[in-house]
Amino acid sequence: MKIQTFTLKGTKVEDTNLPKEFGVKTNPSLLAQAIHVYEERSHIGLRKTKTRSEVLRTTKKVYKQKGTGGARHGSRRAPIFVGGGVALGPRPVRRILNLPNDIKNKSKFMTFALKAEDKEVVFVSGISKLGKTKVAMQLLKSLEKATSAKRFTFVLSETSKEATKALRNLANASYVFYKDANALDIFRGGMIVIDKDIFGEEKKVSKESKIKKEK
């Protein structure tokens, strides 16, 4: 699969073939599971309501037990009264779900593959040289014209840390480093702009791992 490729100035160059690891066969159930876990982990999980024992109100009995013709009541802290405690409200329970590393990687590549099929992935070379917001805005305008997208997520290599200073000031763009990106970041990222330097880093990592195994 060929992907549109641009320079840092927004000039379109020859299309680039998508690497083999990105061409994973999609598994909807696995992808849904991964996205569910990442969504759940993005919630703080500290919502809480006060019970009748925690509400700051008087503990005095509303009126006497008998002889009023009304129902029997205790204090105004009871859930039946406005301003009283909540009977069965949420409690601060934090459940942390985890995924095995192989599912993390598979779901990540699956999401890239889905985005590529929908033509929501482009490559940009030279992002590591991006240092000014003005240049980033010009690049974004060129990508908007070429792709008709309104929201962008830049997937950066480790060599492009300086580019974050220019990208963080753009309203319709966000960024994430490739090693930290997950299926949810990519799935909800709009148009994915991949730093071409990522593929050079991947080759270095694979060579280093082979050398370590041989030792």
Read across the widest sheet, the strand sequence of neighbours is 2-1-3-6-4-5
CATH architecture of the domain at 2-26 and 100-214: 3-Layer(aba) Sandwich
* Strand composition percent: 5-15%
What pattern of helices and strands is seen along the backbone?
EEHHEHEHEHEH
CATH class of the domain at 2-26 and 100-214 equals Alpha Beta
Task: Write up this protein.
Belongs to the universal ribosomal protein uL4 family. Keywords: Ribonucleoprotein, Ribosomal protein. It holds the Pfam family Ribosomal_L4. This is Large ribosomal subunit protein uL4. The chain has 215 residues and is an alpha/beta fold. Helices cover 34% and strands 14% of the residues. A 6-stranded mixed sheet has the order 2-1-3-6-4-5. α1 (28-41) packs across α2 (101-117). The longest helix has 18 residues, at 197-214. The two termini are 37 Å apart.
Looking at this protein, list some descriptive labels.
ribosomal protein; disordered C terminus; Ribosomal Protein L4, Chain: A; structural constituent of ribosome; alpha/beta; Ribosomal_uL4_dom_sf; 215 residues; 14% strand; 6-stranded mixed β-sheet
